[in-house]
Amino acid sequence: MEPTRAKRWVVQGLVVAFACIFMVPFIIMLVTSLKSMAEIQSPSFQLLPHTYLFSNYANAMSQGNWPRYFMNSTIITSTTVGIGIIVMSVAGFAFARLNFAGRNILFLFSLVGLMIPEQVIMIPVFMKIKSIPFAGGNDIWGNGGTGWLNSYWGLIVPHLAHPFGMFLFRQFFLGFPKELDEAAKVDGCSRLRSFFNIYIPLSLPVFATVALLKTINNWNQYTWPLIITNSDEMKTVQLALSMFKSESGLQWNYIMASTTLIAIPMLLLFVFLQKYYVQGIVSSGVKG
Known about the structure:
Elements: H1 3-32, H2 37-40, H3 55-61, H4 66-97, H5 103-111, H6 122-130, H7 152-156, H8 163-173, H9 178-186, H10 191-202, H11 204-219, H12 223-228, H13 237-240, E1 245-246, E2 249-250, H14 252-286
Antiparallel strand pairs: 1-2
Helix pairs in contact: 1-14, 3-14, 4-8, 4-11, 8-11, 8-14, 11-14
């Protein structure tokens, strides 16, 4: 066997092996969702259930207002991703293609956000959200009411933009030749028009990459919705999983059934955008 061909087989074998390892949690989640609680709590572990209880899915969805929970997560995620991509792409374009005083310093300061854990700024952000003027019964000074607590605004606005998404856009836009800007200028294109008519159509991989990463992050948000919501009406799908906790313990079969249904939209989205995701990560990572 040729060395190049043997190397390719080894690499492919390793990829398949790692893929199987990473699939184990998903397989366990799926088979657990089809078991009875007696089987799950049995001292002896058995991967496959004796009886496949597909009724676990119907029983899990019958508890609570799951259409409302899915609607909340969909509204929050789609709005955050839609507006966030515009904000981050424009910022990345400015840092990559516009020459202005202090550009590199501002870019470095923006990257500081990558070094600060989200949990560190949750209390200051919570206080700001609570003190929004004229919202939730607040006066002009932001006192007397609840602001954007327990609202879509409070769940969406703090997560509209992220330094990592802006960084990916900047790195991708740096890969375009300077001659592209010069040609657009000769044709009478403004910066804004060249961004929408030239750069966006050529940048679908990075847009898909940021959209995918941001969608998964927002869909799986748990801590922030837990902090600022206090009603069943504003629950997201992740918060809704807590309803399967009772005095007798966790209802693992219902939790796994609900988790499987929650994961399906993200899996389908990844399959659909996989090609663009790989292209965007590679292209954004090699540009200086």
